[in-house]
Amino acid sequence: MQVTKKLIADKLSPFYCKQEIESITRLIFEKVLGLSRLQMHLNQHETISSANLVQITEITNRLIQFEPIQYILGDTEFYGCKLKVRPTVLIPRPETEELVDWIIKDCQQLNPAILDIGTGSGCIPISLVRHIKEASAFGWDISDEALIVARENATINHVKVNFAYADVLNHIYPSTLPKFDIIVSNPPYITHSEQHLIFHNVIDYEPHIALFVSDDDPLIFYREISDLAINKLKAGGWLYFEINERFGNEITDLLTLKGFKNIILKKDINGKERMIRAELPRL
Question: Deepest in the core among 18, 115, 255, 257, taking most CB within 10 A?
Answer without folding.
Answer: 115
